[in-house]
Amino acid sequence: FRTVEPLEYYRRFLKENCRPDGRELGEFRATTVNIGKSCCSITTADGSALVKLGNTTVICGVKAELAAPAADSANKGYIVPNVELPSLCSTRFRSGPPGEEAQAASQFIADVIENSQIIAREDLCIANGKLAWVLYCDIICLDYDGNILDASAFALLAALKNVQLPSVTINEETGLSEVNLKQKNPLIIRKHPVATSFAIFDDTLLIVDPTAEEEDLATGTVTIVTDDEGRLCSVHKPGGSPLTGAKLQDCITRAITRHKEVKKLIDKVIKSIKPK
């Protein structure tokens, strides 16, 4: 029945306010995060994190490089995000150049960075007009089972909090940069944006943290991004069923609660890996 009439199969569960995997409509899948060397052996990354949201598994590595600032923003560095959905993570993706979903996810992450001001780009400037940091944030999906946006945003935040940048100065006499690898400083994280995604069923019913199957059956999706103060950073709604003001407010309220849960989880993991 699930194979022949998947939507009808789901509706029978949704009528009882539950889902085939046993979750309530507003319940997230088990969420875990591992940060830094405890998560993965990316020895070349300056910060890394691995996030699991149910079966969806995402890894983020941040690589820092030095570059000259752009002429029109001489006092700012760069943050360059990229989301990859390789064929190994799901049969729905093909090898080759980034598909539509990967491009949309990369743009979503770029918007989250810009709208939330997670890092002030001025903080990445080393010498005005001469030298700045470029942060390449590569987010790779290892196992895809829906809700890639929440997992990607979570992995990015956790990896950025793990970044340690060496001290860099410019030699007055030679004009060359000098890097001190023994003296490292963490990034200044100004905001903690957290994404919370919902699938819309039959134009009215909202379920949180959809699986890949639920996303395929839904009549629309919406992702709410909030920060530490409960401020709305962005609403990402790629078409589909419209939402009433009241429904959107429900989503925002649930997103604020989710933000607290995620922030608590990150803080707990970071505390556990700090040297005693």
UniProtKB/TrEMBL annotation:
Entry-linked CDD domains: RNase_PH_RRP43
Annotated compartments: Cytoplasm; Nucleus, Nucleolus
Organism the protein comes from: Ciconia maguari
Gene3D superfamilies: GHMP Kinase, N-terminal domain
Membership in a protein family: Belongs to the RNase PH family.
The organism's taxonomic lineage, starting at the top: Eukaryota, Metazoa, Chordata, Craniata, Vertebrata
Domain (Exoribonuclease phosphorolytic): residue spans on this chain: 28-166, 193-256
Keywords: Acetylation, Cytoplasm, Exosome, Nucleus, RNA-binding, rRNA processing
Record-linked InterPro entries: ExoRNase_PH_dom1, ExoRNase_PH_dom2, ExoRNase_PH_dom2_sf, Exosome_comp_Rrp42_subfam, PNPase/RNase_PH_dom_sf, Ribosomal_Su5_D2-typ_SF, Rrp43
GO terms classed as biological process: exonucleolytic trimming to generate mature 3'-end of 5.8S rRNA from tricistronic rRNA transcript (SSU-rRNA, 5.8S rRNA, LSU-rRNA); nuclear mRNA surveillance; nuclear polyadenylation-dependent rRNA catabolic process; rRNA catabolic process; TRAMP-dependent tRNA surveillance pathway; U1 snRNA 3'-end processing; U4 snRNA 3'-end processing; U5 snRNA 3'-end processing
Acetylation recorded as keyword: yes
GO CC annotations, alphabetized: cytoplasmic exosome (RNase complex); nuclear exosome (RNase complex); nucleolus
Name the UniProt record assigns to this protein: Exosome complex component RRP43
